[in-house]
Design goal:
- By secondary structure, the chain is mainly β.
- Strands 2, 4, 5, 6, 9, 10 and 11 form a seven-stranded mixed β-sheet that branches.
- A hairpin with a 6-residue loop joins β4 and β5.
- The relative contact order is 0.32.
């Protein structure tokens, strides 16, 4: 059974850094493109970053470009999101999602498998 588990969320001060992880099991990981999404209270889920099957191609939303870095280690079935210079607006539940194929996708409807999310809170 396909499973995605996010970890590494927590409380961080504005300007700080955090790295969250998404670890997969139950499927052939290297055939799936991965996306990171977030959802703040009262807001829609938004795509913020994505990578193709081998981690060469990457995409970032304008809101996180230059501050967040996505990477993947296929030997560990894990994708990371390094988040630097965090802002209070980054507070949200962060989700990873997987879709079969190499193409990077940016919309939630394009992904069939989701983790349960990890909370990131940016506050002083």
């Amino acid at each position: 059974q396909l499973e995605l588990v996010e970890s590494g969320g927590g409380l961080v001060q504005p300007g700080g850094s955090l790295r969250i992880s998404c670890t997969a099991s139950g499927f052939t990981w290297q055939y799936y493109a991965i996306g990171w999404f977030r959802q703040a209270p009262g807001k829609e889920r938004e795509g913020i970053s994505g990578t193709d099957t081998n981690g060469d191609a990457k995409w970032y939303a304008d809101s996180v470009k230059g501050r967040f870095t996505i990477s993947r280690d296929n030997s560990k079935n894990t994708v990371y999101l390094q988040m630097d210079n965090l802002k209070t607006d980054d507070t949200a539940v962060y989700y990873c999602a997987a879709r079969m194929g190499n193409r990077i996708a940016t919309l939630p409807k394009e992904f069939g498998s989701w983790g349960r999310g990890t909370q990131v809170t940016v506050s002083s």
